[in-house]
Amino acid sequence: MILRLTIDAFTATAETSATLRQLQQDRALGKSSIALMTGGIGGAITHYADAGTPQVVIVEDDDPASLLSRLEHLAEVCNAGTRVVVIGGINDIALYRNLIARGVSDYLPRPIEGRQVADALERLFADPHTAPRGRTIACWGARGGVGSSSVAQNLAWELGRQYQEEVVYIDLDLAFGTSVLAYNIDAKQTVADALAHPERLDEVLIERCMVEYDDHLSILASPADCRVRPPMAVEALEQLLELTCRMAAFVVLDLPHQWAEWTEHLLVQADEVVLTAVPDFASLRDTKAVMEAVSGRRGGAVPPRLVLNKVEASRKTQLTAKDFEDTISVKAVASIALEAGVFADAATNGQMVGEAAKNHKVTQVLGQLATVVAGKAPSGRRAKAGPFAQLLSLLKR
User: Could you tell me the pTM of the whole model?
Assistant: First the structure.
């Protein structure tokens, strides 16, 4: 299992620092981000007084006499869902049970080995329901040519830029996808190769098929060949998503304008759906139809997010944004003006809009859209205390 975790480690001894430094080379944590700091539990308390906590915090104890009281202070600055692993100098079963009862996820007595820590992290997330899972964002165009693929490609890049986390963009338009051209990449293998043999599908095969665009964004490109027709089985796509969601914080799906069992299934199951339309009558009709077909079947998930693209305020053949929104009773989360030159310059250079026109208004709109669909606050923002803090607080009272 390849874990995708954000880990902060606060060490108190040189030996533990050296061991955790080696841990960064462990293949099981190859997709994880590990930040090493000093200061032990006290250092962690000071650090998180003004910063959000990651998924896992590893702290080394340097004073057994005050361990429990300092853990109580640490709990007060922990965000929701944070797992805490303590490394200490006492090998005592009673202490271990006491710490577990107080909400600590695991306790490892010194001396430790890198594999020992990796095994402990794997145990924490062995249950698929507790393992970190990326957010799926399905992008769909109300009609062909509305610019849904451009929105999806720029959205994927913006998510990586804003959150500094792994993003996987999957181009599922196997016949006419534009990902290779848009990102200016050379894809030796494509998503069609990954789906051709579902029984062999695993993280290693997916990594072999992906192309890295930058430090955060990886591409599963389309073959863009209408002669390639691998079966698009719902089961294979679910397996592909399950694996990529373990590998990245966000998985952006670029769906073709094709109403089929598998596209409908992805629109229903995705965490977020971005529905792109241009403000004309044909898009209005089709947007309304898709909204009615999908919204009621998404359970507790939010309805599809509407993006109005290629908006020309002076064009008489277009509807106003207000008329479009009022007719279908849906408010657009983003309105992108027709800026043909900006998109053309980016396409010519094989770049995203945010790279080619960093300060342009279109870039700002795309950045705001990324924040809306991300489902979480940008890094650095504090959340309410999690179960670890609540349990310690209750026991203290």
Answer: 0.72
